[in-house]
Specification:
The protein is of the alpha/beta class. It contains twelve helices and ten strands. Helix 3 crosses helix 8, helix 8 packs across helix 9 and helix 9 packs across helix 10. The protein is globular and about 60 Å long.
């Protein structure tokens, strides 16, 4: 059942408008034919626009809303050397005229490329750490030093994957279902595939679909790194946090959620043969650019699922393109 009150609160929630919305839902008939299915669409969140777009823009609209940013002198966040989240955060700091410090793991590149180049182009200061586990404690140490200098830092969790950040994709679920309903193609179910790592995107989708009462949309999160059990648990935890902010208690279990971890390969950011083949298919057949860390593996997971399951004429497949294409140029 639709929770009208919670949906109204979501629509009225303060945010900083960064994204060009709605993003298009495009037909991918050539790719559908190649995969042997009747209907495939791509939800182009690569085209959210701000700082070269991607899914992080929707989350940061909520995390960086004006009231929360009042008096902030420095944004601090973390990610990989090719982090899309760090890219968008650094660009927002540049637009606002505040300092930005990014904590990234790995060796400082001699010649930055891709997102690493954009981080620096947007004026971010880079602090490198050896391991992923070092990122969060380092962020808090940096924040303490900023406070000691008299500044006011804001620490943004990795990927902006929080209960608040996931509201960006709860709102996106409203947008997407309106586009799906307008298709008028007779489909009774949608199989929605996308990438997942820090889980905020999938959490927001599950929350939004639950608030809308839309169990007809099945959510498939394809892992970029973590095991499926961990991703499912974090997704539902974040969705519950987002629901609490809205004063809602939707039946999250009513939204079919599947997490897939068989495309991780050698680990985060390590390309696989299947991901490279998916990148080639999307480019050659639809002129759509994927990235090696997230969307290529998500596309490979979708393609593998389609090859091993029957997709009926009453089901449409949708690929959520969460952006990240600067990573392809790294």
């Amino acid at each position: 059942m639709k929770d009208i009150d919670a949906l109204r609160r979501l629509e009225e929630w303060p945010r900083t408008h960064l994204a060009n919305l709605p993003t298009p839902l495009i037909k991918a008939d050539r790719l559908a034919g190649h995969l042997g299915i009747d209907a495939l669409h791509i939800k182009m969140d690569a085209e959210t626009g701000f700082a070269l777009g991607g899914n992080k823009v929707r989350k940061l609209e909520f995390e960086l809303e004006p009231n929360r940013m009042a008096g902030v002198t420095c944004l601090i966040t973390a990610g990989g050397a090719q982090s899309n989240h760090c890219r968008v955060t650094a660009a927002f700091a540049a637009r606002l005229g505040v300092r930005c410090i990014l904590v990234t793991q790995g060796v400082e590149p001699a010649k930055p490329t891709g997102n690493a180049l954009l981080h620096r182009l947007f004026g971010a200061e880079i602090v490198t750490v050896a391991e992923r586990a070092d990122r969060t404690p380092t962020m808090h140490r940096v924040a303490a030093s900023i406070e000691a200098e008299g500044g006011r830092p804001m620490v943004l969790p990795i990927g902006a994957s929080t209960g608040l950040g996931c509201l960006g994709y709860a709102s996106a679920a409203l947008e997407l279902t309106q586009q799906l309903d307008a298709l008028g193609d007779g489909s009774s179910e949608t199989l929605l595939f996308g990438s997942t790592s820090s889980c905020g995107t999938m959490a927001g989708l599950v929350l939004g679909l639950a608030l809308l009462g839309r169990p007809d949309v099945h959510v498939f999160g394809v892992s970029a790194d973590a095991p499926s059990e961990e991703l499912t648990a974090i997704t539902l935890e974040l969705a519950r946090e987002g629901a609490a902010l809205l004063g809602a208690s939707p039946d999250l279990a009513s939204v079919p959620l599947v997490t897939i971890d068989d495309q991780v390969g050698g680990g985060y950011g390590v390309p696989t043969v299947a991901a490279s083949e998916a990148t080639a298919d999307f480019g050659r057949l639809e002129g759509v650019v994927l990235d090696p860390t997230y969307t290529a593996k998500a596309a490979a997971g979708m393609i593998d699922w389609i090859s091993t399951h029957e997709v009926t004429r009453k089901q449409r497949v949708v690929f959520l393109h969460t952006g990240g294409h600067p990573g392809l140029l790294a």
